[in-house]
């Protein structure tokens, strides 16, 4: 039965130290005893970093082997390498006993041999199969006199995890070991270590298992109130054990009650209340009834002192939309419907010239029937709104667009430039959309909105910040808490190896999450997750070869590969509707959208990589579709409960970690 461990069980508890990856936890950590079978395998042992020759050392050694002894000056002239570096290389080769003080090759060595060509040294290692779901853990313990298997005896009372009998007699195969080595190599690279594991030429496995337990600390994180399980070997958190524990909670009532009772003992009835932001001048009851989506876009987000470019763009789109629907528009829709692409472009150019606006630099985009239907259904999209607006204004001297044209003749190009900035930010380019000073486009936004919709009034000196933002200490604490939470989530080494822009996106999203209140607008949060995920996907696609498939087959092939890997029973609609042209551009290295990146990964990843993703994150495809669907067009208000936001955050972070490690 599960429960606290006995003294006899402690003798089987392996000692790999006490991992502490947790950030702020509620009530401290508890300790699990996780059952594992260990198997002995013989395979080539990794070459220590210090024993390897770097590229410069290999070059100099080969030159000496071919040309005979040469002094440092001659080697520098021959290789065009600086003299001081040559002297350093020669000293290193002498230290490794590969050359003598006269730069003569020591004959006992295999001259000029590449490390990868050297005969590997075989050694015995232990591999670990956890006994809840039967997965191999990404760690190998190399056995030698200096690295014996250590056991521990603790006075603590650990909670023992029950094993699944179906996994008790399941020795690993050679394929399992090869996959395990690959995972360890990828994880080592992701965390900044170099294992230098050579290609496996021969693997011998002893089928007899040894039963042990691993010490796995578990804690409830303050950030989301969910449990996290430390990797027993000190590599941050263990997604495999967390997934196994989730599976166990669904199957074993005793485990579920243990966690439920623990959480109940930690509950705090006092909730943190943050004061509401003061109302803006435009937030009248009438305006909320007339222009609800515009006001949602204008209202500053929590912890945001200034409007982001996405908010500015969304506010402009909704202002244009509400301005258009204040006038009759059926005639304009009919004109657009009945025009061919060439005629429509000429029609719009003529209307723009008549009211005094410069046409877009790249010409007018063709407004298709579907876009006109979207407008009639209440969807705001810039190109459609511009077309309708200038057609409405061409014969109406009272239309406010005539005043805008006088003030801003380049207005359409300026709006399209804002759209381009918004799109780049939304697809993972650059830092988070969180300006630390007011953007120049914010004043233009206010000018346009007040001209088109006189009911919307702004203060002469706009309110730029809430009380919490004025408090610099609060802002600093908020950033510190968000960064600490992320470092705890991903591990310090992995997080610090993220690019600056990706870190910035995640910190911005985490700040929003940590201060979330039920009903807050989640649009900016979802956009940050979307952008972060797309940037991680684009990195993971580098150096993968695109498939040989016609554009018409790309989505179908991706769906088949996803189903075969166990990622889904059917590709969700949110991915089936991705444009094949966007997928093709993404395959060629020009990321178009998150959906296109997901399809590209399904097409380009090896079968074992897709199966590894399915094993670690079985809801991968559904989670990605949820983020894509939630983001939508990017200007609709998105109120969400804290619980929903926490689920989306957890799924997104799991995907990021999975993509880094597989």
What is the secondary structure topology, with strand pairs?
Blueprint: E1 3-4, H1 7-10, E2 13-14, E3 25-44, H2 55-67, H3 72-79, H4 83-95, E4 122-130, E5 136-142, E6 159-160, H5 174-190, E7 204-205, E8 210-221, E9 227-229, H6 239-251, H7 253-266, H8 285-290, H9 292-298, H10 309-324, H11 330-338, H12 341-355, H13 369-376, H14 382-393, H15 400-407, H16 411-426, H17 440-452, H18 467-470, H19 472-490, H20 492-497, H21 500-514, H22 523-541, H23 554-564, H24 573-576, H25 580-587, H26 594-604, H27 607-616, H28 620-631, H29 642-661
How would you describe the overall organization of this protein?
Strands 1, 2, 3, 4, 5, 6, 7, 8 and 9 form a nine-stranded mixed beta sheet that branches. About 5% of the residues have low confidence. The two termini are 35 Å apart. 50% of the residues lie in helices and 9% in strands. It has four domains: 190 residues, no CATH class; 69 residues; 168 residues, no CATH class; 146 residues, no CATH class. The chain has 29 helices and nine strands. By secondary structure, the protein is α+β, with helices and mostly antiparallel strands. The chain is globular, with a radius of gyration of 31 Å. A hairpin with a 5-residue loop joins strand 4 and strand 5.
